[in-house]
Amino acid sequence: MPDRTRVALDGVPETLLWNLYQRATEARRPDAVLRDPKAVELVDALDYPFAERFGAAALGQWQALRARCFDEEIRRFLGDHPDGQVVALGEGLETQFWRVDNGRVRWLTVDLPETVELRTRLLPDDPPRRRTLAGSALDEEWLRQADPANGLLLSAQGLLMYFEPDQVHRLLATCAQRFPGATMILDGVPPWFSRRTAEGRMRTTQGYQAPPMPWAVDAAEKDRIRAIPNIAGLRDLRPPRGRGPLYGALFPLLNRLRPIRELGVTGLPVMAVRFAR
Predict the structure, then answer these.
(1) pTM, 2 dp
(2) Which of 1, 65, 113, 235 is found 20 to 30 A from 75 (Cα to Cα)?
(3) For residue 32, which of 41, 20, 43, 23 has the smallest C-alpha distance?
């Protein structure tokens, strides 16, 4: 067996390992709600104490259903724009490209330098269709490399909650101005979740503590997003039906009720924000 890749991350970059662990654990199941063999390969390739750091991957299905929200929206986009570009902001070790690739999409990953260094070791670029750019989603460089000629979809999965609210609003305003007619799919955390991270109360029994997540999403925040210039609409994306009585029956029923859905218990709020033409 080849040597595994040692990894040492902390703070926000370390969250990519939690996400990967949850997704891969679900993908190993014969009845998985998300087929993600690439995630399983990555976990097996990494020298990292996943279980010792994060405990049991109890939220594997919850995390996988969130990923499927993004997958389904990207597939919908590629159905209309088969040669389009997807810009994945803060992608970490997400393996979405391999789940949705139609053989024609152009994919640009944007992430912090320490994350890009790890990602390019494990998932080397394959130009011209799949490229990686080191930098923050708040930088200007990726804006210059985004190409809306054949359709453009921006994705920010598990990212914006780590920004301050004014940073999120400025990013959305900039994208809406630069990319008329494009869409950004994004997720957030509800206010109660944001408060617990700020207070240091989101931790596992093994000692892992989630970083602060200052930006929270509720009905009032969605109204603020809709009021940003050149935002044409905001649409909630519901998680698909999962497995078992909780994810297969109770949560889909509760997700029909917007106040319950926005509590973030059945899944983090996922939205598609459309920019005006």
Answers:
(1) 0.95
(2) 113
(3) 23
